[in-house]
Here is the input.
Amino acid sequence: MAPQHTDGRFADQTFAADEFLFRRVPISHIENGELSLLAISNGLKFEKNPPKCSSAVRSKYCAHFSDALHPDCADDRECPDTTVYFLRVGDLAKGMMIRPPEKVPAYSWDLYPYHDPLPKCFAHSTICSCEQSAPNVPVKPPASVRDQFREWLRENLQPCQ
Amino acid sequence: MIASPPQALNRVPDDIPAIVFRVDARKSDFWAKHEDVFPKGSLSAFWTRYHRFNQLTEETHKAKAFEKGWDGYNASAPNDESVIRTLYVLSKVRESKLTPYSVLPSADGGIGISFRGNDNKRAVLELLNDGTSSYVFYGKGCPTESSEFDSNTELPRIVQLLEEYL
Here is the structure.
């Protein structure tokens, strides 16, 4: 069954804590059951333009996690060598701080989900980063925080199958 | 004209080059084809490491076969420069006590060399398509530490850091 198309609907920025975010993962980078850090881009592009954040598919508008593999949700491409991993929205990393040698700015950063529907994939969402003091305003964090988010994603993404 | 009778050849003429049978171990695939020469488990640590580095060299060349979007998103395929730099870094790591766990393309575009140590300690060296190199130390319960480095001049220091960390 094809994923839900947007069909003129608006984005829904309400995410429940127990909602899942599904993300494709290359099978080549699962080594003895452990996801390699190299499967996750450090340029996860937590930038000001939400569509440039890290893509995912939200469970609220999915019939099945395999929607993430459907060409409608994958730039019209087949994804034969990938599988699907998930994160729970309520578990997304919070309060990441910079690490030495970086000294400023001494803020905390969170990850948060952003619903960013595509014409043929209403469930398409992104995982963005914001300063804890300004929730849901996407900001690219400092390098040491990006590194921690990358490792956090590697450690917390879980296989759907 | 009368031919003189053949004479016994009592020495090798100087102009015939000596024939030397020499196998260049770096290029030979003999061991890859004859791994069963040794019963399983009988390989010394030396040969095990020797084979592993040969496999890692092969994995580095194979990394080029990954196409753009191999991660299911928009990751670039490794370019020639990242392959060459990875082979160079592997040759330097080979001189140390370290044996990498794997060589794989990096989702940031380029190639990464992975290491696994004790107590869930992990590390990767990334040689990216844009010419930058970086290391990341991480692992469950271990603080993440990373930095860029110059693979031409700083490699001995990075290898030493890796040895101490893992």
Summary: Residues 30-165 of chain B form one domain. Residues 45-62 of chain B form the longest helix (18 residues). Chain B touches chain A at residues 66, 69-73, 75, 101-102, 104-108, 112, 114, 122, 124, 126, 136, 138, 140, 143-146 (CB under 8 Å).
